[in-house]
Design goal:
By secondary structure, this protein is an alpha/beta fold. Helices cover 44% and strands 18% of the residues. The chain has 12 helices and 9 strands. Strands 1, 2, 3, 4, 5, 6, 7, 8 and 9 form a 9-stranded mixed β-sheet that branches. Strand 1, helix 3 (50-66) and strand 2 form a beta-alpha-beta unit. Helix 1 (2-15) runs antiparallel to helix 2 (22-33) and helix 3 crosses helix 10. It is globular. The protein starts with a helix and ends in a 5-residue tail after the last helix.
Protein backbone atom coordinates (compact mmCIF):
# COMPACT_ATOMS: atom_id res chain seq x y z
CA UNK A 1 0.00 0.00 0.00
CA UNK A 2 2.74 2.48 0.96
CA UNK A 3 4.59 1.66 -2.25
CA UNK A 4 1.46 2.35 -4.34
CA UNK A 5 0.86 5.63 -2.50
CA UNK A 6 4.47 6.67 -3.02
CA UNK A 7 4.29 5.80 -6.74
CA UNK A 8 1.00 7.64 -7.16
CA UNK A 9 2.38 10.66 -5.33
CA UNK A 10 5.41 10.62 -7.61
CA UNK A 11 3.17 10.48 -10.68
CA UNK A 12 1.05 13.43 -9.50
CA UNK A 13 4.18 15.41 -8.75
CA UNK A 14 5.62 14.74 -12.21
CA UNK A 15 2.36 15.78 -13.90
CA UNK A 16 2.56 19.04 -12.00
CA UNK A 17 6.15 19.62 -13.09
CA UNK A 18 7.47 18.94 -9.59
CA UNK A 19 10.33 16.69 -8.56
CA UNK A 20 10.78 14.58 -5.46
CA UNK A 21 13.95 13.59 -3.69
CA UNK A 22 14.65 10.02 -4.81
CA UNK A 23 15.35 8.99 -1.23
CA UNK A 24 11.73 9.69 -0.24
CA UNK A 25 10.31 7.14 -2.68
CA UNK A 26 13.14 4.65 -2.23
CA UNK A 27 12.85 4.68 1.56
CA UNK A 28 9.09 4.14 1.45
CA UNK A 29 9.42 1.29 -1.03
CA UNK A 30 12.28 -0.32 0.91
CA UNK A 31 10.37 -0.19 4.19
CA UNK A 32 7.26 -1.60 2.52
CA UNK A 33 9.11 -4.64 1.13
CA UNK A 34 11.30 -5.30 4.19
CA UNK A 35 12.70 -7.88 4.63
CA UNK A 36 13.43 -8.90 1.06
CA UNK A 37 16.90 -10.42 1.58
CA UNK A 38 18.80 -12.22 4.36
CA UNK A 39 19.27 -10.36 7.64
CA UNK A 40 22.56 -10.69 9.52
CA UNK A 41 22.49 -10.89 13.31
CA UNK A 42 25.88 -10.10 14.86
CA UNK A 43 26.82 -11.87 18.09
CA UNK A 44 29.89 -10.59 19.90
CA UNK A 45 30.84 -13.92 21.50
CA UNK A 46 32.10 -17.23 20.18
CA UNK A 47 29.68 -20.03 19.20
CA UNK A 48 28.57 -22.43 21.90
CA UNK A 49 27.66 -20.15 24.78
CA UNK A 50 24.20 -19.32 26.11
CA UNK A 51 24.08 -15.93 24.35
CA UNK A 52 25.01 -17.46 20.99
CA UNK A 53 22.50 -20.30 21.45
CA UNK A 54 19.71 -17.86 22.26
CA UNK A 55 20.64 -15.69 19.26
CA UNK A 56 20.39 -18.69 16.95
CA UNK A 57 17.02 -19.62 18.38
CA UNK A 58 15.80 -16.05 17.83
CA UNK A 59 17.15 -16.11 14.26
CA UNK A 60 15.34 -19.38 13.54
CA UNK A 61 12.02 -18.15 14.93
CA UNK A 62 12.30 -14.76 13.18
CA UNK A 63 12.88 -16.63 9.94
CA UNK A 64 9.68 -18.61 10.46
CA UNK A 65 7.45 -15.63 11.22
CA UNK A 66 8.84 -13.44 8.40
CA UNK A 67 9.42 -16.18 5.80
CA UNK A 68 12.92 -14.78 5.43
CA UNK A 69 16.47 -15.82 6.33
CA UNK A 70 18.19 -14.53 9.48
CA UNK A 71 21.87 -15.50 9.73
CA UNK A 72 23.98 -15.34 12.91
CA UNK A 73 27.49 -13.99 12.43
CA UNK A 74 29.92 -14.32 15.35
CA UNK A 75 32.18 -11.27 15.44
CA UNK A 76 34.36 -11.89 18.46
CA UNK A 77 37.16 -9.97 20.15
CA UNK A 78 37.77 -7.32 22.80
CA UNK A 79 34.78 -8.30 24.90
CA UNK A 80 32.23 -7.59 22.17
CA UNK A 81 33.82 -4.34 20.95
CA UNK A 82 34.55 -5.67 17.45
CA UNK A 83 30.95 -6.77 17.05
CA UNK A 84 29.67 -3.39 18.21
CA UNK A 85 32.01 -1.63 15.75
CA UNK A 86 30.79 -3.84 12.93
CA UNK A 87 27.21 -2.89 13.78
CA UNK A 88 28.04 0.83 13.99
CA UNK A 89 29.57 0.74 10.48
CA UNK A 90 26.52 -0.98 8.99
CA UNK A 91 23.86 0.67 6.86
CA UNK A 92 20.75 1.54 8.91
CA UNK A 93 18.46 -0.46 6.64
CA UNK A 94 17.54 -3.25 9.06
CA UNK A 95 19.62 -5.93 7.35
CA UNK A 96 22.36 -5.88 9.98
CA UNK A 97 21.41 -6.24 13.64
CA UNK A 98 23.16 -7.28 16.84
CA UNK A 99 21.95 -9.67 19.51
CA UNK A 100 23.43 -8.98 22.91
CA UNK A 101 22.74 -8.55 26.61
CA UNK A 102 23.67 -6.10 29.37
CA UNK A 103 27.36 -6.66 28.65
CA UNK A 104 26.97 -4.44 25.58
CA UNK A 105 26.37 -1.45 27.87
CA UNK A 106 29.81 -2.03 29.39
CA UNK A 107 31.71 -1.85 26.09
CA UNK A 108 31.84 1.99 25.89
CA UNK A 109 32.94 2.08 29.54
CA UNK A 110 35.76 -0.39 28.98
CA UNK A 111 36.82 1.05 25.61
CA UNK A 112 36.12 4.81 25.72
CA UNK A 113 38.65 5.51 22.94
CA UNK A 114 36.40 3.60 20.52
CA UNK A 115 33.93 6.50 20.74
CA UNK A 116 30.81 4.34 20.92
CA UNK A 117 27.63 5.15 22.82
CA UNK A 118 25.10 2.44 23.63
CA UNK A 119 22.18 4.86 23.25
CA UNK A 120 23.33 7.24 20.49
CA UNK A 121 24.90 4.59 18.25
CA UNK A 122 22.11 2.01 18.29
CA UNK A 123 18.44 1.67 17.45
CA UNK A 124 16.55 -0.44 19.98
CA UNK A 125 14.42 -3.18 18.41
CA UNK A 126 13.24 -5.21 21.39
CA UNK A 127 14.12 -7.60 24.18
CA UNK A 128 13.34 -11.30 23.98
CA UNK A 129 14.27 -12.66 27.41
CA UNK A 130 15.17 -11.52 30.91
CA UNK A 131 17.45 -13.91 32.79
CA UNK A 132 17.50 -13.53 36.60
CA UNK A 133 20.73 -13.37 38.58
CA UNK A 134 21.20 -16.00 41.28
CA UNK A 135 23.37 -15.69 44.38
CA UNK A 136 25.00 -19.04 45.14
CA UNK A 137 27.36 -20.19 47.86
CA UNK A 138 29.68 -23.16 48.21
CA UNK A 139 28.52 -26.17 50.16
CA UNK A 140 31.64 -25.86 52.32
CA UNK A 141 30.88 -22.24 53.32
CA UNK A 142 28.37 -23.14 55.99
CA UNK A 143 26.12 -20.30 54.78
CA UNK A 144 22.47 -21.28 55.19
CA UNK A 145 20.63 -18.32 53.71
CA UNK A 146 20.94 -14.67 52.68
CA UNK A 147 19.84 -13.09 56.02
CA UNK A 148 22.42 -15.06 58.01
CA UNK A 149 25.10 -14.29 55.42
CA UNK A 150 24.44 -10.56 55.64
CA UNK A 151 24.39 -10.71 59.43
CA UNK A 152 27.79 -12.39 59.49
CA UNK A 153 29.25 -9.90 57.00
CA UNK A 154 27.97 -6.89 58.94
CA UNK A 155 29.26 -8.22 62.27
CA UNK A 156 32.65 -9.04 60.83
CA UNK A 157 32.34 -12.73 61.64
CA UNK A 158 32.18 -13.65 57.95
CA UNK A 159 34.78 -12.50 55.42
CA UNK A 160 33.27 -13.31 52.06
CA UNK A 161 35.18 -13.96 48.83
CA UNK A 162 33.07 -13.34 45.74
CA UNK A 163 34.21 -14.74 42.39
CA UNK A 164 33.30 -13.36 38.97
CA UNK A 165 34.23 -13.84 35.32
CA UNK A 166 36.56 -10.84 35.25
CA UNK A 167 36.60 -7.03 35.41
CA UNK A 168 33.75 -5.41 33.54
CA UNK A 169 31.61 -8.52 33.16
CA UNK A 170 27.94 -8.40 34.10
CA UNK A 171 28.68 -10.70 37.03
CA UNK A 172 31.36 -8.31 38.30
CA UNK A 173 29.06 -5.30 38.20
CA UNK A 174 26.15 -7.34 39.57
CA UNK A 175 28.19 -8.31 42.61
CA UNK A 176 29.35 -4.73 43.14
CA UNK A 177 25.76 -3.52 42.83
CA UNK A 178 24.54 -6.13 45.31
CA UNK A 179 27.21 -5.19 47.89
CA UNK A 180 26.30 -1.53 47.48
CA UNK A 181 22.59 -2.12 47.95
CA UNK A 182 23.07 -4.53 50.85
CA UNK A 183 25.59 -2.12 52.44
CA UNK A 184 28.19 -4.83 53.08
CA UNK A 185 31.77 -5.44 52.01
CA UNK A 186 33.45 -8.45 50.44
CA UNK A 187 36.54 -9.34 48.44
CA UNK A 188 35.84 -9.48 44.69
CA UNK A 189 38.06 -12.12 43.09
CA UNK A 190 38.36 -11.76 39.32
CA UNK A 191 38.79 -14.84 37.12
CA UNK A 192 39.36 -15.30 33.41
CA UNK A 193 35.79 -16.29 32.71
CA UNK A 194 32.94 -17.56 34.83
CA UNK A 195 33.96 -21.20 34.38
CA UNK A 196 37.05 -21.03 36.65
CA UNK A 197 35.09 -19.00 39.23
CA UNK A 198 32.38 -21.64 39.38
CA UNK A 199 34.98 -24.41 39.60
CA UNK A 200 36.45 -22.72 42.66
CA UNK A 201 32.97 -22.20 44.10
CA UNK A 202 32.27 -25.92 43.83
CA UNK A 203 35.65 -26.66 45.37
CA UNK A 204 35.12 -24.22 48.24
CA UNK A 205 38.04 -21.92 47.38
CA UNK A 206 35.61 -19.00 47.26
CA UNK A 207 32.32 -18.71 49.10
CA UNK A 208 29.98 -16.98 46.65
CA UNK A 209 29.20 -16.28 43.00
CA UNK A 210 26.43 -14.15 41.51
CA UNK A 211 25.56 -15.38 38.03
CA UNK A 212 22.64 -16.12 35.71
CA UNK A 213 20.11 -18.90 36.20
CA UNK A 214 21.24 -20.57 32.99
CA UNK A 215 24.57 -21.27 34.70
CA UNK A 216 23.55 -21.80 38.32
CA UNK A 217 20.27 -23.72 37.98
CA UNK A 218 21.75 -27.12 37.00
CA UNK A 219 24.50 -26.81 39.65
CA UNK A 220 21.93 -26.04 42.35
CA UNK A 221 19.63 -28.86 41.28
CA UNK A 222 22.65 -31.20 41.21
CA UNK A 223 23.55 -30.07 44.76
CA UNK A 224 27.03 -29.01 43.67
CA UNK A 225 26.41 -25.55 45.09
CA UNK A 226 23.61 -23.89 47.04
CA UNK A 227 21.56 -21.05 45.56
CA UNK A 228 20.27 -18.75 48.31
CA UNK A 229 18.61 -15.86 46.46
CA UNK A 230 17.17 -15.12 43.02
CA UNK A 231 16.49 -11.72 41.44
CA UNK A 232 12.80 -12.17 40.71
CA UNK A 233 9.54 -10.76 42.02
CA UNK A 234 8.43 -14.28 42.89
CA UNK A 235 10.19 -17.61 43.33
CA UNK A 236 11.00 -19.44 40.13
CA UNK A 237 9.10 -22.67 39.44
CA UNK A 238 12.37 -24.27 38.28
CA UNK A 239 13.94 -23.66 41.71
CA UNK A 240 11.05 -23.16 44.16
CA UNK A 241 13.26 -23.71 47.20
CA UNK A 242 15.30 -20.57 46.46
CA UNK A 243 13.95 -17.34 48.05
CA UNK A 244 13.96 -14.01 46.25
CA UNK A 245 16.35 -11.21 47.23
CA UNK A 246 13.32 -9.39 48.65
CA UNK A 247 12.63 -12.32 50.96
CA UNK A 248 16.28 -12.23 52.01
CA UNK A 249 16.23 -8.57 52.95
CA UNK A 250 17.54 -6.84 49.80
CA UNK A 251 14.36 -5.98 47.86
CA UNK A 252 16.04 -3.29 45.73
CA UNK A 253 18.30 -5.84 44.03
CA UNK A 254 16.23 -7.06 41.10
CA UNK A 255 18.85 -7.32 38.36
CA UNK A 256 17.76 -9.46 35.47
CA UNK A 257 19.97 -9.68 32.41
CA UNK A 258 18.11 -8.56 29.32
CA UNK A 259 18.76 -10.20 25.95
CA UNK A 260 17.68 -8.30 22.90
CA UNK A 261 18.14 -6.98 19.38
CA UNK A 262 19.53 -3.61 18.37
CA UNK A 263 20.37 -2.09 15.02
CA UNK A 264 22.67 0.74 13.97
CA UNK A 265 21.55 4.30 14.61
CA UNK A 266 19.21 6.01 12.17
CA UNK A 267 16.99 3.09 11.18
CA UNK A 268 13.63 4.02 9.58
CA UNK A 269 10.71 3.76 11.98
CA UNK A 270 8.74 1.56 9.57
CA UNK A 271 11.55 -1.00 9.52
CA UNK A 272 11.96 -0.86 13.31
CA UNK A 273 8.23 -1.42 13.74
CA UNK A 274 8.28 -4.42 11.37
CA UNK A 275 11.19 -5.99 13.22
CA UNK A 276 9.57 -5.33 16.60
CA UNK A 277 6.37 -6.99 15.40
CA UNK A 278 8.36 -9.98 14.16
CA UNK A 279 10.14 -10.24 17.52
CA UNK A 280 6.78 -10.23 19.32
CA UNK A 281 5.60 -13.12 17.16
CA UNK A 282 8.88 -15.03 17.48
CA UNK A 283 8.91 -15.04 21.29
CA UNK A 284 5.44 -16.57 21.36
CA UNK A 285 6.31 -19.67 19.36
CA UNK A 286 6.21 -22.98 21.29
CA UNK A 287 9.88 -23.69 20.52
CA UNK A 288 11.05 -20.36 21.91
CA UNK A 289 8.87 -20.50 25.00
CA UNK A 290 10.09 -24.02 25.80
CA UNK A 291 13.73 -22.97 25.56
CA UNK A 292 13.21 -19.93 27.77
CA UNK A 293 11.54 -22.15 30.34
CA UNK A 294 14.60 -24.41 30.53
CA UNK A 295 16.75 -21.33 31.22
CA UNK A 296 14.45 -20.28 34.08
CA UNK A 297 14.16 -17.00 32.21
CA UNK A 298 11.18 -14.78 31.51
CA UNK A 299 9.75 -13.49 28.23
CA UNK A 300 9.12 -9.74 28.60
CA UNK A 301 5.59 -8.44 28.21
CA UNK A 302 4.62 -6.65 24.99
CA UNK A 303 5.15 -3.28 26.68
CA UNK A 304 8.50 -4.30 28.19
CA UNK A 305 9.97 -5.56 24.93
CA UNK A 306 8.87 -2.55 22.84
CA UNK A 307 11.52 -0.37 21.13
CA UNK A 308 10.56 2.62 23.30
CA UNK A 309 10.90 0.69 26.55
CA UNK A 310 14.13 -0.97 25.42
CA UNK A 311 15.56 2.48 24.67
CA UNK A 312 14.66 3.59 28.20
CA UNK A 313 16.34 0.45 29.57
CA UNK A 314 19.54 1.25 27.67
CA UNK A 315 19.50 4.81 29.01
CA UNK A 316 18.97 3.60 32.58
CA UNK A 317 21.69 0.96 32.38
CA UNK A 318 24.12 3.42 30.83
CA UNK A 319 23.75 5.82 33.76
CA UNK A 320 23.66 3.15 36.47
CA UNK A 321 26.65 1.18 35.17
CA UNK A 322 28.72 4.33 34.56
CA UNK A 323 28.24 5.42 38.17
CA UNK A 324 28.96 1.92 39.47
CA UNK A 325 32.06 1.58 37.27
CA UNK A 326 33.51 4.73 38.83
CA UNK A 327 32.76 3.50 42.33
CA UNK A 328 34.48 0.14 41.87
CA UNK A 329 37.37 1.64 39.92
CA UNK A 330 36.71 -0.18 36.64
CA UNK A 331 39.74 0.50 34.46
CA UNK A 332 39.36 1.50 30.81
CA UNK A 333 41.33 -0.50 28.27
Amino acid sequence: MKRRIASAFAGIAMSMGLSLAPGLINTAAAADSFPSKPVTIIVGVAPGGSLDALARLVATELGKVTNNTFVVENVTGAGGLLGFQRLARSAPDGYTLMFSNQSMVLIPLLYPKAGLDIVKDTTAIGTVANVPMVLSVSNQSGIKDLPSMLKGMRSGELKLYFGSGGPGTTAHLAEALFLQMADVKAELIQYRGSGPAITDLIGGTIQAVLDQTVTMLPLHNGKQIKAIAVASKTRLPQMPDVPTFAEGGVPQFDLQIWNGLVGPKGMPKDVVDKLAEAVSKAVQTPEFRARIDTLAARIPSAEERSPANFTSTLQRDQMQFAELAKKIGLEAR
